[in-house]
Amino acid sequence: MMLASTFGVWRAWPARRSLQLCVFRRGFSGSLICSVNNSPNAGTTTHFGYKTVPTESKESLVKDVFSSVASKYDVMNDAMSLGVHRLWKDQFVSLLDPGRRQPVKCLDVAGGTGDIALRILDSARERWADRETSVRLLDINPEMLAEGQKRFKKTMYYNTPQVAFTLGNAQDLPRDSCLNDEYDLYTIAFGIRNCTDIQAVLNEAFRTVRPGGTFACLEFSKVENPVLSQLYETYSFSVIPMLGSILASDRGSYQYLVESIRRFPPQREFASMISQTGFQIGDLHEGEGGAWRDLWGGIASIHIGKKPINALLTMPATGAPAMPPASADLATTWPFLEEGVEHIMMRLHTGVTYSKYMNLYTAVYNYCTSSRLHGSFENSALGSRTGANLMGSDLYNNLTRYFTTHLETQREKSEPIVDQDLLVFYASEWDRFTTGANYINRLFAYLNRHWVKREKDEGRKNVYQVYILALVQWRDRLFYPIQNKDHKLVTALLKMIEKQRNGETIDTGLVKKVIESFVSLGLDDNDQNKAQLDVYQKEFQTPFIDATEKYYTHESATFLQEHSVPEYLKKAEERLREEEDRVERYLHFSTRKTLISKCEDVLIREHSGKMQDDFQNLLDYDKDEDLQRMYSLLARIPEGLDPLRKKFEEHVKKAGLAAIAKLQGEAAGSPGGEVEPKAYVDALLEVHHKNQETVNRSFRGEAGFVASLDRACRDFVNRNAATGTSSTKSPELLAKHADALLRKNNKLSEEGDLEEHLNKVMTLFKYIEDKDVFQTFYTTKLSKRLIHGVSASDESEASMIAKLKEACGFEYTNKLQRMFTDMQLSKDLTDQFKERMEVSHDAAELDVAFSAMVLGTNFWPLNAPAHNFNIPKNILPTYERFQRYYQSKHSGRKLTWLWNYSKNELRTNYLNQKYILMTSSYQMAVLVQYNENDTLSLEELVTATGIPKDLLSQVLAVLVKAKVLINEETDQYDLNPNFKSKKVLPLGQIRVNLNQPIKAEVKQESSDVLKTVDEDRKYVIQATIVRIMKARKVPFTMKNQVLIQEVTSQISTRFAPRIPDIKKAIDTLLEKEYIERADGQRDVFNYVA
């Protein structure tokens, strides 16, 4: 008789439980909460913290504790331990060092929020580049397990074979996911003290750990140092419950956690329990070579045990039948084996003695290694095979016949059973059969390793390992015969699924078990350990999808007839979520794509027209939740969102046009009849902001809806009731609004919201088509802010220029930045001029305070007056001195004086009260004439100042309105000797600002800007044409239509060019001989190099 270390192994279990043999069950996974409440515990009590409770109640009480603290569990751990628990867990995993020798398969019990599991995977990956180590995270509490899943969703391990989540009880681990001798490493951290039966937990750990595997426990323990112990007690019972009350609003749960620590066995006692379970540990002391390691003086401890390599799960041998002799033939050997196989297949729950199992295994071994040739090979289904030490054919055939006969009996039992009863029978038999077949497979291990392997290596078909053989027989002898009779197995499944869809509660575990058997029955002939899905797909998935289509077609049509579209959206969303959940609970994951696609087709695509028709109604009434649902549903089908995007674009455009039309109507009744820039911009922004919120909130910022919003905004921003047919009005109003924001004394600048409002300006700016118009107006307004010193701040000006530069590039803002440079150079020039004059002239000669701004002609949008201006003699010496000084520094430059932009301050000497009059140069030229005259006619003032009569009349009108001059006779103006003003400054001086804009100048400014834009566009178009032609390969030829399209494409980011303007530019370049027409072709041009 030969013993092999690969045998299945046993251990004696407590009387409350029958012997459970190690099972490899193909095709099963899942979780089970098993509450141990058998007769030994009935009527007994145990501790729950410091309370005494019935034993059967503790499990539910503990579950309640962790349900209440699950969401705050990690936060509370950090607070209670000041983060030290993380160091303990790091040390715990570091000591285990997973992945050091090879990848490990780990079971993390009471894994909760995943702290240990994640550390194990990270340690294996980071220290040993191991991506094969896997962890099954198990916890009895679904809330805690959900927290762990939430954490893992943020990691690379989620949805990979490296991590799995199981709901289960540490005292009775799920048999389908926690097989005997399955795991290399079993960990439990801060969890075992909460279990009702600690010994039962250790027994289960011993069962699931493979021989040579490791049991590791991190748990609170007993502090031996009296001083530390007293401090720890005080902190535990005073501080921790209080923190639980403050941070988690649950003092009671944290009171229990503290008390549970005190009721847990001390280190030596717990180590003894681990040893008595069967694990090998160190000596019963702390530290190197000892059974445990204390952390922080014993506040916590690490216990590690090894399962012996030769660990056996033993039962006493009771009357084991005598085994055949080593040389027995098949006729003698098979009856002995058949009785053992029958016992395992039908009566496994009664247990199998160790000696009987060994005898069965040895009988198989003896027969397979016999030197005699047994049986009649000629009659073998596998043909004639000979050869010493490979006696397996007859044994394999007998085993096949046994499975056939056995399954025929079970098939006959199934014939009268239907519906759910059939499923219960099938699942129960499948469980029993596959469990037994696993053990039969181990008994016939030698047959598998040698005879079966050789047959397969030689290409023999229809030869399987014993377990696979059992599955093949189940499929052919039981599954197909039941299924072929009116498909009654799948029909029963579909009925149960329909019940669940109708709101009834069903046994999903039963459905899952039956469906997973279909998966297991799909066998790959090339790789028998690999499951195929042909059986599952043909027998279950196809009829299931058909039934799903029929069910939802009827339900959706009926529901829509009786309910509104928003209610249907909720229903469809709910049904899709249910089907997703159905896949997770009991269907194979491969079904998801087909199932969800079919549901989307029936629930969404078939009714997409009705949904889309109701879209406008949802928009009009701001039904955000319904819009979100409609978007989510229609996004699932191809082109489902296209009609929504078009309707949304029209909706936004309509809202924008209506807002401006209303504003224009209100402005029509006001003086001037024009829309105020601020009101105009605010109205546009309000429409944009509201619909931007809709896109972000209801449509999740989807690119198609963003594009629809942009197109609609571009449309109504550039063409609306306020702009009429003009494409320049919007950029003009936006530039004026920006100018108002950037001026001093603007309330927004004081409130610190200026940057936010500038960003809003840029929001509209991106929709402006004629950006060159905005640029020119903005440049003009900026020049005046700089000249008159009324900018809110240099920082705000720089910020706005940076935004424009980012949007349009360096060239767009080059002139703007140069203007700031000129301002600084002018300040330095004025300072130098004053220093020179102070050296070369007496103070009496420098009675006029003077500063000059020298501005580059190419960068400032300023035009000198077309008329003459007689410089008043009061400032003529200063004017001449500066002219000479500047020419001495820059002999090749010419100064053109911009009197229309200059400003002055005059001090009154003819009144009792001293006033400072702030004037324009033209106003100053008029007022200084009254130093020598009390009254002057219009003609006399025209002669004295050189200002044209029309302009001078407007200048005089401002002075008369301010009551500085009196106009009692036609065209006769007198100085007012009784002038008074109430605007008193803090120092007692009275400053009167007379420098107000003249309407003619304002209108002229807009006209000049638009003329400048038109001229600039001509040159831009011409330059673009030349650049495009030069970029062509020799002979630099291009057709007229292609050229026009290319020019339009390149310029459209700056402004929208008109085709007639492009044609004029082409004609101009033809005249200038930059380009020429190709010979004989009027629509083809050549570039003249």
TrEMBL record:
GO terms for cellular component: extrinsic component of mitochondrial inner membrane; SCF ubiquitin ligase complex. GO terms for biological process: methylation; protein polyubiquitination; SCF-dependent proteasomal ubiquitin-dependent protein catabolic process. Keywords: Isopeptide bond, Membrane, Methyltransferase, Mitochondrion, Mitochondrion inner membrane, S-adenosyl-L-methionine, Transferase, Ubiquinone biosynthesis, Ubl conjugation, Ubl conjugation pathway. It is found in: Mitochondrion inner membrane. This is 2-methoxy-6-polyprenyl-1,4-benzoquinol methylase, mitochondrial. It comes from the Eukaryota. Belongs to the class I-like SAM-binding methyltransferase superfamily. MenG/UbiE family. Pfam families: Cullin, Cullin_AB, Cullin_Nedd8, Ubie_methyltran. Residues 729-960 form the Cullin family profile domain. Methyltransferase required for the conversion of 2-polyprenyl-6-methoxy-1,4-benzoquinol (DDMQH2) to 2-polyprenyl-3-methyl-6-methoxy-1,4-benzoquinol (DMQH2). One of its GO terms (molecular function) is 2-methoxy-6-polyprenyl-1,4-benzoquinol methyltransferase activity. It comes from Ceratobasidium theobromae. Its EC number is 2.1.1.201. It is a peripheral membrane protein.
